Amino acid sequence: MTDDEWVSYELTVDGKPHQVTARWDESLLTVLRERLGVRGPKLGCAHGRCGACTVTLALDGESALTCSCLLPAAAAAGADVSTVASLAAGDGALSDVQDAFLEAGAVQCGYCTAGMVQSATGLLERNPDPTRDDVVAALYGNLCRCTGYGRIVEAVLATAARRRNR
Amino acid sequence: MLLAAPRFALPETVAEAVAALAERPGAVLVAGGTEVLPDLLWRRRSAAGFVSLRRIPGLRTVVPGLTLGSGVTAARLQRPDVAAAAPALARSAASLGTPQVRAEATLGGNVVSALPYRNLLPVLLALDATLVLASAAGEREVPFDGFVLAPGQAALRPGEVLTAVRVPVRTGFQDYVKVGRRNAQYVATVSAAVVVDTAERRVRFGFGNAAATPLRLDEADRAATAAVDWSTGAVTLDGAEAVAELVRRGVDPPEDDAATAAYRRHALGVLARRLLLRAGGADDR
Ligand SMILES: Cc1cc2nc3c(=O)[nH]c(=O)nc-3n(C[C@H](O)[C@H](O)[C@H](O)COP(=O)(O)OP(=O)(O)OC[C@H]3O[C@@H](n4cnc5c(N)ncnc54)[C@H](O)[C@@H]3O)c2cc1C
Ligand code: FES
Ligand code: FES
Predict the structure, then answer these.
(1) Would you call B266 helix, strand, or coil by DSSP?
(2) Which atom in ligand 3 lies closest to the alpha carbon of residue A107?
(3) Which of A19, A94, B196, B197 has its CA 20 to 30 A from that of A35?
(4) Rounded distance, CA A159 to CA A153, Å?
């Protein structure tokens, strides 16, 4: 590879700053997984359909859930990226959404789970009292080939109910 | 410029983007990347570099009245200010891709993709939208009608950047419907938008995947305009059926794995009739 293929920039991932050097066309997902060893986001389809690569991208004062496989990583230079790893407390304890997924049996192979949990967590931040339809709409971009969605939706609704009663 | 490398540029202004593109032969513009990255993956396109429009704040603004920066995302188009000024555009954005895709997919990328089944294009036709294009030679404004020359081919000059889309604000009913195998994860098998302008007493449709390019039908628009009782806003069933017949005759839809041309022709007639009856206040049918 010639020298002109490379781009260098900063990325903060789950609170930790990194100096990245990567090819100009690498996706954010590739940079996270292959360059930085951040393994929460998964490579499913690589073209925006499955949501296994979902991360929260905070950039220029806006924050949104996005497919990291679709974004050229260098376009996110200076961004603050949060993955599933930043949901837990850090002492090994899971977040309430993650706990609810386990309790509801909403995890089988687990490949979709990091993305599902990210989308569910994002929904509950925006809308603490979602209807079943709201949950289904929020998870529309996350595909699961094992669990069958029913238990996943239950887990999200259960978390919302538990937070309300707290 | 936030970042400048031989094959990658991250400009902060349109002028920087135009210059960065000129300096990088073979580089492509990338806004959200939701088309460019899959295209590269499937080798439908090649690129020798990227000039990203993602960090140009001026392209992401919404000016009431309504001027939408080309970098405005589908998620942004769903918000109440746009939904009030251009309801059909917000409806159409709501069925574009998935929530994650809508967070990055831009209006400009949808327009420049120039594919007849893209969500926002029939709406822009029905609304009489115009496009603002910038290049080293300066700025020009062109109607969106006529901008799509062929599937995937826009009337964009080399080195030109789409900076904004101007959308006239109309008072009256607007809607967008899309028929697809799934609503958002698949492209529209066919789609249609309707815009009623109560001030000018005019109805205008736009159709998606009804021909090689997004389609308008003057005859159907005239018949639809005549089918409205402008004092009450009501639409007769006969009037709506006459419009459907003109649509079936006027379209020239593609034939592919998703549907036959005959199915598309039939479905486009149904959508036109349904939208017009909805505009007239009828219950959904
Ligand atoms: C999972 C998935 C589902 C999708 N579903 C839908 C759907 O339901 N309906 C639909 O319509 N689309 C859909 N799309 C396609 C895509 O998301 C949209 O067309 C989107 O609006 C493209 O915007 P972008 O900013 O991501 O474009 P990009 O990929 O960044 O660019 C697309 C093209 O436009 C050019 N371009 C972009 N901005 C400019 C500009 N300002 N000036 C000049 N050229 C420019 C680029 O060079 C490129 O050729 C889907 C995509 C994915 C991945
Ligand atoms: S890997 Fe990104 S959506 Fe499937
Ligand atoms: S648990 Fe296997 S893909 Fe969802």
Answers:
(1) helix
(2) 1
(3) A94
(4) 10
Q: What is the distance of C-alpha B143 from the center of its chain? A: 13
To test ligand 2's pocket by mutation, which of A34, A69, A71, A139 has the most ligand atoms within 8 angstroms of CB? A69
To the nearest 10°, the Cα dihedral for B93, B94, B97, B98?
140
* Dist CA B25 CA B1 (whole Å): 18
pLDDT category, B187, cuts 50, 70, 90? confident
Interface with A, mutate which of B2, B8, B53 (most A CBs under 10 A): B8
**A75: which chain B residues are within 8 Å (Cβ-Cβ)?**
10, 30, 33, 50, 52, 54-55
Phi-psi region of B3 (alpha: psi -120 to 50; beta: other; left: phi over 0): beta
In Å, what is the CA distance from A30 to each residue of A10, B49, B58?
A: 15, 17, 29
Looking at residue A93, what DSSP letter applies?
P
Which single residue is written with the structure tokens 């073979």? B26
CB contact under 8 A, B52 and A60: no
> How close A149 gets to chain B, by Cα (Å)?
16
Tell how many helices (H) and how many strands (E) occur in chain A: 5, 5
Strands laid side by side in the A80-82 sheet = A16-23, A6-13, A80-82, A54-59, A62-67
CA distance B165 to B71: 10
Longest dimension (CA), chain B: 63
Pick left, alpha or beta for residue A110 (phi over 0 → left; psi -120 to 50 → alpha; otherwise beta): left
**Tokens describing residue B278:** 């909805």
First CA to last CA across chain A, in angstroms? Answer: 56
DSSP B9-56: EE-SSHHHHHHHHHTSTTEEEESS-TTHHHHHHTTS---SEEEE-TT-
What element of type H or E holds B227? Answer: helix B218-227
Distance between CA atoms of residues A39 and A113, nearest Å:
12
Q: Which of A27, A137, A141 has the CB atom closest to B101's CB atom? A: A141
CA dist B112 and B144 (Å) reads: 11
Cα A39 from Cα B131, distance rounded (Å):
42
3-state SS assignment for residue A50: coil
Residues B131-172: tens digit of each pLDDT:
999 999 999 999 999 999 999 999 999 999 999 999 999 999
User: Per-residue confidence at A148, pLDDT binned at 50, 70, 90?
Assistant: confident
